[in-house]
Amino acid sequence: MSGGVDSSVAAAKLVAEGHEVIGLMLRLWAEPDCRDNRCCAPESVEQARAVANQLGIPFYLLDYKKKFWDAVVEPFAQTYLAGETPNPCLTCNKKIRFGALLDEARALGGQKLVTGHYVRLEENAGQYLLKKGLDPLKDQSYVLYQLSQAQLAGCMFPLGALEKSQTRALAKEYKLEVASKPDSQDLCFVGSGGYRGFLERIHGGAWQVGDFVDSQGKILGRHRGLPFYTVGQRRGLGISSDQPLYVTRLDVKQNQVVLGGGEARYSTWISLKEMHFQQDPTAYLGHPIAARIRYNAPEHPALLTKGQQGEFRLDFLKPVLDATPGQGAVFYDQDLVIGGGIIKEVGR
């Protein structure tokens, strides 16, 4: 439970169906001034507790600050320091929500860990199939592609076949006070200044200034440090130019930020690391699949290939915009999640 409408409706649906339900909420590490975020606001805790009281279910607040720091926050910072752009939700879901929390739920005697994620789960011949949520605007399959079969076997997603409007209607039907509560931010632990301010406060001085260069290596100016830039960024560069300039690549070895015009933002292939498959990839090698290269991004038709050393690569049928090392690339066969990996290298 988070104190939001989705997890509250998920709990209410289970109670209405006659299940024995226990409400669990995580207290995660967060900067002191991020009170508006779901993982650290005292009012969110009170809202979740109030919903549990209204539903007549036990409610436990679990202190996961250190676990969250070790598994999510510090790796998030280190990935930025390494010149990549991470998605911490991928790690949080794999290691915290459906890792440590799933273990906790089982220790309490729970048969299923239930969340308000908008995904569908089907079982076929002993295999769990992870599918998109029916609401295309709320589908969260991208952030759950790394879950194992053992993790999926212990999960239930009662909102996967609903649209968000239906969830809010159910919240009103159940007379939940959170029925009109706005959706939460995704990056839940940083305070003022966003991730850049967070990095300065946590790891200030762990980077070096360097050069802005164009694709030919011509020096265009000086940058503050690689962690302050991400692929596709235009604002905050401090570079005068006759045409708009964007970050097209971070060169970690040379400590350079490569800039280019809008056409330089497009790429035709990406290589991948840290692969995880929900389905046997051999059935899809060399055949067109749909790929999503960041959360809530459009899908792109691509060919998945495997090299002689076991490395995977996606070749896009049309150039894609702002493919970014460190982000997840998730593959689909219509609404079925095939698997995915972390973007390692981008080719143009």
UniProtKB/TrEMBL annotation:
It holds the Pfam family tRNA_Me_trans_M. Its EC number is 2.8.1.13. The record marks 117, 327 as: Interaction with tRNA. It catalyses: S-sulfanyl-L-cysteinyl-[protein] + uridine(34) in tRNA + AH2 + ATP = 2-thiouridine(34) in tRNA + L-cysteinyl-[protein] + A + AMP + diphosphate + H(+). Residues 271-343 form the tRNA-specific 2-thiouridylase MnmA-like C-terminal domain. ATP binds at residues 26, 116. Catalyzes the 2-thiolation of uridine at the wobble position (U34) of tRNA, leading to the formation of s(2)U34. This is tRNA-specific 2-thiouridylase MnmA. It comes from Candidatus Lambdaproteobacteria bacterium RIFOXYD2_FULL_50_16.
